[in-house]
Amino acid sequence: MLDEKGILFVLSGPSGVGKGTVRKDLFKQSNDLAYSISMTTREKRLGEAEGIDYFYKTNDEFEQLIADGELLEYARFVNNYYGTPRRYVEDTLRSGKDVFLEIEVQGAVQVKENFPEGVFIFLFPPSLEELKNRIVERGTESQDAVLNRLKEAENEIDMMDVYDYVVVNDDVNTAVSKIQSIIQSEHCKRERIARQYKQILKEES
Residue 19 annotated as binding? Predict the structure, then answer.
């Protein structure tokens, strides 16, 4: 019998591209994914909740987690830390459940280095103009912050080559459907199935 381990799926892209919206809609339609909540030192935004959107940490707390090796990845973005708890991800994958990470591009690159067998999905904006509109409509950023985010977005788009898939987020439902197809496809990959069968044969021989 196949004893399949879970797959780590990483969704990232420029700030304002709609990662959170796409992830929430994806999870409404699927009970088969475990969401790994990130840690951050940024201030809690209106409507966000501890343990649901993020685990909110002070700078000192976060830096201690780094020192203790408790993060799968971390990054400093617009003067705030973001990171992924290592133990939760590894334990969940071993239990056979897929883990879905929604993180910034810098963090995704680190995960790629530390966990190359993961599946990396880049959420792409229809255009930079549309990305600017989405950031402005948030109403949470100053004009200077918007410009900084757009400049950072251009740099992040240049890093697209480290990803396995690119999904354009011009329509949330369409983007979610494409990501669901990616998940199904990855579970049917010959390499994964062959690896599991070889392990079974090795154990039975």
Answer: yes
